[in-house]
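Subject: sequence -> structure tokens, single chain

Hey, anyone have a minute? Need the predicted structure for the following. Not urgent.
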Amino acid sequence: MAQMIEVLLPQMGEGVHEATVTNWLVAEGQKVEKDKPLFEVSTDKVDTEIPAPASGYLSRIVVPVGSTAQVNQCLAYIAADATQATVPLLVEDETPREQLSAPISPDSAMSDEEDDHTASGGFARSSPLVRKIAKDRGINLEQVKGSGLHGRITKKDILDFEGQAPSLTPKPVSAPLVTAAAPSAQALTPVEPTRLKLNVQDGQELLEGVPVRRETMSRMRQLIADHMIDSVRTSPHVTTVFEMDLHRITTIREKYKDQFFKQEGFKLTLTHFFIHAAVQAIKQHPIVNVSVDGQDILWKKDINVGCAVALDNGLIVPVIKQAGDLSLLGIARRMNDLVVRARSKKLKPEDVQGGTFSITNPGGWGSITSNPIINQPQVAILGIGAAVKRPVVVDDMIAIRPMMYMSLTFDHRVIDGEGGAKYLATLKQIIESYDELPT
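Reply:
Had a minute. Here:
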């Protein structure tokens, strides 16, 4: 039989052991070109396209859309010739092909005896993490069908089973809304999804008499939901708001925007100024750039700014690394690159890791101000409102100026009201003091 080339799930970044296939961009039998996008995956870090490892024809897809695979697991086969037969899934010793290169991950690194044991005493394969989730949610693993290797029950199987079992009653959450000593969102147990009581009439689900259409959240939407709830449980959120006069930076931008676009090929925006100013203010108030680990404060050497980017199916926060070392031009270039790759699904997992401070800009849609949720394990997030021309008093005279509200939501465990206000006061002073394009 002619040799087939395996399409493996590549290493997706530090700490990423699995990914969900969200889309095959080439159908079985179609031509494949090396290094051209072949399929899309979603991880707990990012959605991204994966290129083909070789040219040829997609002979067989082993892992369909919606299935989760481990790093280095075989997802499909590429044949050199379109007429080649589909590769069999079994080799000579009758061992499934995918099993031969199955990686060892924290979810699977255990002996067969451990792996076959469940919390209910049965023989369904599962990891300690899966058994803990099942125990917390009152799920009998013997009733769950595993989709992993050897029928292993994965976390996704648990969540899918729970979504298909309306008779399950969620355990009441007894923990307080704010857990003051929680070290980070990663240390929290999985969030229990709220289950509503629905009636079914003539095959139609009804919520309080209103017909509804059920749609499962996308992988990205589920992760956003869990992360936001974890953040509220972890940090006591406080928000303070300042008003900024954008007269100086709008004048500078207007002066250089055409020259900048001709030179760089993309627009110079007010957001680039805001990021640059925010970084300079962090240098004077490093407390907004820390993390909390139990009763310890972790002071960070680098300033890595995460900037929220809206996508069709959710929100992603790519990170401008070592922003404290960048000029305004450097920040603009780095931000443009991240936004372009985020919207074309070209981001890598490392592009969304390591953030130390976040900025969100709902003002682009007209929001005057906002009260955003902190991106754990960070302790502060800056909200940028809409720029609106208003009459204001300047030197005892009324003038029309572009004004904006900026909010800082911060973790009250480590930042007091005074600290949050001082940071915004410094940011205001920087924004209102630009007299030329900063370098």
